[in-house]
Amino acid sequence: MALDGDLDCLKLDTSQIEDGLRHIDRQRFPLNYRKLTDELARRRAQEQATMAPTPVRAPLRFEFRGETREYFRIWIVNLALTIVTLGVYSAWAKVRRQRYFHSNTFLAGSAFGYHADPVRILIGRAIAAVLVGSYFVAVRISVVATLAAGAVIFLALPWLVVKSRMFSARVTSWRGLRFNFRPDYRRAYLIFAGGLILTILTLGLFAPRMSRERYRFIVTRTSYADTPFESDPGIGRFYQTTFGAIGLAVGVGIFVMMFMTALIKGLDFNPHSSHTAAKVVPLISLFFNYAILGPVVLGYTQSRNLNEVLNHTTLGPHAFSSALGAQRLIGLYLGNVFAIVGTLGMLTPWAEIRLMRYRLESVQLLAGQSLDDFVARAPQSVPAAAAEELASFLDLDFGF
Amino acid sequence: MASEGIRALFYDGHSSRARPVRLAFTSSSTDAALTIDDGTQPHTLPLRELRLGERVGGTPRLVTLPDGASLEIQDNDAFDAWLRAAAVRTPEQAVRWLESRWQYALFATALTVLVSIALLRWGLPALTTRAVRFVPPSVDALIARDSLRALDLTTFGPSQLSQDERQHLTALFAEVAHDAQPPGLQFRIEFRKGNRVGANAFALPSGVVVLTDELVGFARNDDELRGVFAHEVGHLRNRHAMRMLMQGSGSALLLVGVFGDVSAASSLTAVAPTLLVSQGYSRDFEREADAFAFTWLAAHGIGPEHLSALLRRLPGAGSGGYLESHPDLEERVEAAHQAAAPPTPGPK
Q1: Residues 67-86, chain A, touching B (beta carbon < 8 A)
Q2: What does the alpha-carbon distance between residue A92 and residue A80 come to, in Å, rounded to a whole number?
Q3: B-chain residues within 8 Å CB-CB of A72?
Q4: Residue B32 — φ and ψ, nearest 5°?
Q5: What is the pLDDT of residues A8-44, one digit of tens each?
Q6: What tens digit of pLDDT does each residue of B287-307 get?
C-alpha cells in the first residue's frame, strides 16, 4: 500500500494525471492530490508558455544586448592586459570577447554560449604565429621559398577551413546543446582547391558558383545538436551579385581615378610638386582601396549573398529569413573604417557593436514548431585550436 | 512553482527545452549548496560540484551541473551577490572588477598607448639589436637573395662605366669595406645603370652595394663617393636588413594583436600603422648609417661636408615630409656639420 506523499508525478504523463485526479480519494491522500493538481497546473502553464510564442512559422528575432560603453571598458582592459603580458593574455582576451558577443545574443529568451578553453587557444595562437612568421620569412628569402610556402597554404587551406569550422561550431551552444560541424575533407578539397583551379581556368566565370558551393558546404555541414542545417541557395542570384559587384568596383574605380587626376593637377601648382605627388598618390590609392572600395564591394556582396543563403536555409522544421540591406551594410562598413582610423582604433568597440547588432537583428528564425524539440545524443570533442587561430590570422572569414 | 528565489532557465543537456526554475542557496555547516526548484521536485547540489561559467559584462552566467545539464541564470545580480556573500571565487572576478570601472578603463587606455609606443619605439629595436647577434651574418645573405636578379629584370640596365672607372671605384669601396666586414662575409660592389631609380646606391643584405652610373655622374670628387660607400657599408655593418625583418615582423604581430579582431573591412587599421612604423624604423636606420659614415670619414681625415654636398646636389632633394623613408636632408646635413664641429666649443 502506497503512502501519501511519495507519488512521483514526473513519471506520469498528462492523461494519467487527469485520470488520477478524477478517481483519487482526497481525504486519504491529501498530499498526493495536491501534488497532482500542482503538476497539472504547471504542465498546462508550460504548454501555453511554449506554444503561445511559437505558432506555425512564427518569426523569432535574434536579439543583441551588447552595449558600446560596457564593451569599450571590457575591450580596453583586455587589450592593456594583452600588451602588458606581451600577448600571452590575448587568448583569454579572445575568449572574453567571444563570450561577450555570444552570450549577448538571445533567441527565444535563451542566450548563446561560448566554451573555448583559453589555454588551448594560446597553444593554437603560438603554432599559428610560428607558421605565419615563417611564411613572411619565406617571402623575404626567395621566390622559390615564396612559391613553396604558397603551395603549402593552398594545399592546407581546405583542411584548415574544416578544422576551424569544427572548432567554432563545437564551442558554441544554445540552451545547453552544442553546435557541430561534420567534417567532409573530400568535398572541402573539391570546393576550395578544385573550385579555385576551375575559377582560374575559366578566368573567373566559375567564381559565383564556387562562392555558392562554399556557403552551401559551410551551412549544410553545420548542425545544431543532432539536427543538420540544410541550404539550397539559387545560383542565378550569385551570378547577379558578382556582376553587380564588378560594376560597383569599376564605378568606384573611375571615381577614384578622376579624384586622383584632379589631386595631382592640384599638387602641380606646388613648386616641389613631382616629389610630393609621387609620395602622396600611392598612399591615397592604398587608402581608397581599403577604405572605400573594400567596404563598398564587401557590403554589397555580403548582404546579398547572406540574404540568399539564409533565406534558403532550414533547420529541421524551422526556416530563416535575412533582410540585410546592401546600402545599410556599406554605410556601416564605411563609417566603421573612418571612425576607427580617425580615432587610431579607439572607436573599434563602437564599430564592432553596431555592426554585430545590425547583422544579427536583420535575421529571423521562422519557427515551424516549438523550439524545445531539438535533441543531442552524444557531445562532440573539440579539435585543437591551431587551425582556428591560423584561419583567423589568414582572415578566412565567411561572413557568418 | 515557487515564486521566491533566483530565476534561471534549466537545460537538461539532452533536449533544447528551457524549463524556468527558481534557485535558492543553503549554507550548511560544512558546505554551501544550491537548490534547484522546477515546481515539482526541488533537488539540492553542493556548490563545489557545479562549474560556474564566466560572465562578461551583463551577459548571463552559465552553470554546468555534474550530469551535463546546465542553468542559465536570469537574476544575475542576485546570484552574484550570493556568491560574494558565500565567499565563492568565480574565475573572472579580478578582470571583471577592472572591466567594470571607468577609471580603470581610462588607465588601461593610457597604459595601452604608452606601452605600445614604448615597445615599438624602444623595446623592439633594443630587442632586435641584441637578438641579431645570435643570427650568423651568413643568414642575412638569404634574405632577398634574388633581389639583385629581380632588380636587374625590372629596373636596372647594364652599367656604361669604363673598365678604368670601375677599377678605381672598386678600390675606393675596398678602402671603406675593409675594416667593416664581419668574418666570413665579403662586401663587394656592383655597377648598374639606375634608369627609373636614377642617382642612387643600395646596400643588399647579401653584402652587395649597388652603385648607379647616375650617382657617379653627380659626384665631384672621390671623398664624396667615399662618403656614399661609408653610408651603405654602415647599413651592411649594422645588419639593417635583418633587423628590419625582425622589427617589421615584431611590430606587425603587435599591431595584429591590437587590431586583429576587427572585421575584414577595417584591415586599414592594421595596414596604416604597420606602414608608418616601418617607415619610422627605416629613418632610424638611415641615421645610424649616416653616423657610421661620419665616424669613418672623420677617422680618415675627410670632412663630413663631402657627403652632405653630394646629397644636396641630387635631384628631388628638398621637402621631406613625415612619410619619407629618408630623414629630411636638412637634418642629415645638420648632423654632418655637428659631426664636423670640434667636440669642445670654440672658434671654427
Answers
A1: 67, 70-74, 76-84
A2: 12
A3: 105
A4: -85, 145
A5: 666 677 777 777 777 777 777 777 777 777 777 777 7
A6: 888 888 888 888 888 888 888
Phi, psi of B263 (to 5 degrees): -60, 160
Domains of chain B: 6-92 (2.30.29), 137-340 (no CATH)
Q: Is B56 exposed, middle or buried (0-12, 13-18, 19+ CB in 10 A)?
A: buried
List, as ranges, residues 328-367 from A with C-beta within 8 Å of B: 333, 336-337, 340-341, 344-346, 348, 351-352, 355
Residue A112: other Cβ atoms inside 10 A: 19
**Residue B47: Cβ within 10 Å count:** 17
For residue A371 the three cell numbers come to 523550439
* DSSP-derived secondary structure letter, A344: T
> What are residue B31's phi and psi, to 5 degrees?
-150, 150
Burial B23-39 (b: 16+ CB within 10 A, else e): bbbeeeeeebbbbbbbb
* Structure ipTM: 0.76
Q: Is B175 helix (H, G, I), strand (E, B) or coil?
A: helix
Phi/psi region, residue A57 (left: phi>0; alpha: psi -120 to 50; beta: rest), is left
> Which A positions 17-76 lie with beta carbon below 8 A of chain B?
35, 38-39, 42, 46, 49-50, 65-67, 70-74, 76
Specify the amino acid at residue A27: Q
Phi, psi of A384 (to 5 degrees): -60, 155
pLDDT digits (tens, 9 = 90+) for A132-174: 777 777 776 777 888 888 888 888 889 989 999 999 999 999 9
Mean pLDDT taken over chain B: 81
Which residues, in sequence order, are CB contacts of A162 under 8 Å at separation 6+?
A: A181, A183, A184, A185, A188
| Shortest CA gap B150–chain A (Å) | 10
Is residue A184 exposed (0-12), middle (13-18) or buried (19+ Cβ within 10 Å)?
A: middle
Nearest CA in chain B to A37: B40
Whether residue A366 contacts residue B295, with contact meaning beta carbons closer than 8 Å, is answered with no
Residue A78 and residue B95 in contact, taking contact as beta carbons nearer than 8 Å:
yes
CA distances from A78 to A172, A387, B175 (A): 22, 23, 55
CA-closest candidate to residue B332, choices B315, B307, B314, B298: B307
**Per-residue pLDDT averaged across A364-370, rounded?**
91
